[in-house]
Design goal:
globular; mRNA 3'-UTR AU-rich region binding; 332 residues; binds NADP nicotinamide-adenine-dinucleotide phosphate; Probable quinone oxidoreductase; oxidoreductase
C-alpha cells in the first residue's frame, strides 16, 4: 500500500492545558531523513513528559506533535549508512518525537524490532517507562538485595513497572499512591508496604516510613512527584542515603541549597533516560533486558486504556487528574 501525503495528527500550536491538543486530519506525512525510518504507527505511548512539553515546563519548538514512543511498521527507510539494516515491513518499537500521529519519522538508532509473540501494545506499555525504571534501578542507584526503597506514585505508568523491578532485585519496597484502589494494585505487585499519601492517616507518610524502618529511613527514594514530596523525601531518606528525583508530576523541585544535603550526607541524582541509552550499545543493553523480562513473564504490564488518537485531550485530562493506573496508549 502506498503512503499517503497527509495524515491524522495531534498538533500543539501554543502552550496550555489539554485543550491545546488539536486534531488535524490533513497534516503532512513526514519523510524519513538521513538515519531515519518512516513508521506507520499501530500504537503510541502517552507519558507524563508529554504534558511538560505541552505546558512549556520543558522547552520545545511549536507547532509540535507530542509523543515520544510508538510501535508499528516501517514503510520507508531514509538515506545514509545509519539505518541499522531496517527494511520496509519490519515491526518495530521506537523512541523519538512526534508519536501522536499516524506516521512518524523516527531515528533508526533508537528503533528495535519487536520479538515475535510480543504484542505492540505490551511493548509500548513498558518501553520508555520500562527502559527508564531499569536504568534507574541499575545505574542511577544500583539497588541491592535487602535495600529499603521508597517509591512515589507506585501505581502509575513508571511506578507499576518499577515496583516489580525492585522486587525482582530483592528490595524491600515502600510505595506511595493516591487512593485505596491504587494502594491495592501496588500491594498486589508484592510491595512490602503501601501508603495512601492522600488519605488523612497517610498525610504523615514520612512518619510512617520512619516507623517501618525503625527510625533509620530508606536507602533510596525514587521521587517523580517533585514539588509536593521533595521535602518529605529528604526527611525519609537515611543517613548517607540517595534520592533520585526523576520527574515533576506535581511541579518541579525548587532550587535546592546544597547545604540541605549536609546533615545526613545525602546524595542526590537527577537522571533522564536518554543519558543512559545514548549509544546503540547502551540502548540495546536495556532493550534486551526489557524484552527478556517481558518474554519470561517476570514483568507484567498494565494498560490503563487505549484511547483513539483524537481522544488525546481526554488522555491528558485523565493522566494529570491522577485518574489512571499503569500506561495510557493512543491508537492512531
Ligand atoms: N527522568 C526520566 O527519564 C523519566 C522517564 C519517564 C518518566 N519520568 C517521570 O516519571 C513520572 C511518571 O511518569 P508516567 O508517565 O508513568 O506518569 P504516571 O505515574 O502514570 O502519572 C503520574 C502520577 O503522579 C502522581 N501525582 C502526584 N502528584 C500529582 C499531581 N499533583 N498531579 C498529577 N499527578 C500527580 C499520580 O499518582 P497518585 O495519584 O498515586 O499520586 C499520577 O498518577 C513523571 O514524573 C515523569 O516525568 C521520568
Amino acid at each position: 500500500m502506498s503512503t499517503p501525503s497527509t495524515m491524522k495528527a495531534i498538533v500543539v500550536e501554543k502552550l496550555g492545558g489539554p485543550e491545546v491538543l488539536e486534531t488535524k486530519t490533513a497534516h503532512p506525512v513526514p519523510t524519513a531523513g538521513e538515519g531515519q525510518l518512516l513508521v506507520k504507527n499501530n500504537i503510541s505511548g502517552v507519558n507524563y513528559i508529554d504534558t511538560y512539553f505541552r505546558t512549556g515546563l520543558y522547552p520545545s519548538a511549536k507547532p509540535e506533535i507530542l509523543g515520544r514512543e510508538g510501535a508499528g511498521t516501517v514503510v520507508a527507510v531514509g538515506p545514509g549508512p545509519n539505518t541499522w539494516n531496517f527494511k520496509a515491513g519490519d515491526r518495530v518499537a521506537w523512541l523519538g518525537t512526534g508519536g501522536y500521529a499516524e506516521y512518524t519519522a523516527v531515528p533508526a538508532e533508537k528503533t528495535v524490532k519487536i520479538p515475535e509473540g510480543v504484542k505492540d501494545e505490551d511493548v509500548i506499555a513498558s518501553f520508555l517507562s520500562g527502559l527508564t525504571v531499569l536504568s534507574l534501578a541499575k545505574e542511577t542507584y544500583a539497588v541491592q538485595k535487602g535495600d529499603w526503597v521508597l517509591l512515589h506514585a507506585a501505581a502509575g505508568g513508571a511506578g507499576f513497572l518499577m515496583t516489580q523491578i525492585l522486587k525482582t532485585l530483592g528490595a524491600k519496597v515502600i510505595g506511595t499512591a493516591g487512593g485505596a484502589e491504587k494502594v491495592a494494585l501496588v500491594k498486589s505487585l508484592g510491595a512490602d508496604y503501601v501508603i495512601d499519601y492522600r488519605s488523612e492517616e497517610g498525610k504523615d507518610w514520612v512518619g510512617r516510613v520512619k516507623e517501618i524502618t525503625n527510625g533509620r529511613g530508606v536507602d533510596v527514594v525514587y521521587d517523580s512527584v517533585g514539588k509536593d514530596t521533595w521535602e518529605g523525601s529528604l526527611e525519609a531518606v537515611k543517613k548517607k542515603g540517595t534520592i533520585v528525583w526523576f520527574g515533576n508530576a506535581s511541579g518541579p523541585v525548587p532550587p535546592l541549597p546544597l547545604a540541605r544535603l549536609t546533615p545526613k550526607c545525602v546524595k542526590v541524582a537527577r537522571p533522564a533516560l536518554f543519558g543512559y541509552i545514548d549509544t546503540r550499545e547502551e540502548f540495546e543493553f536495556y532493550v534486551n533486558e526489557l524484552f527478556r523480562l517481558l518474554q519470561s513473564g517476570e514483568l507484567k504490564v498494565k494498560i490503563h486504556k487505549v484511547y483513539p488518537l483524537e481522544q488525546a485531550v481526554q488522555a491528558h485530562l485523565d493522566l494529570e487528574g491522577r485518574k489512571t493506573t499503569g500506561k495510557l496508549l493512543l491508537r492512531p
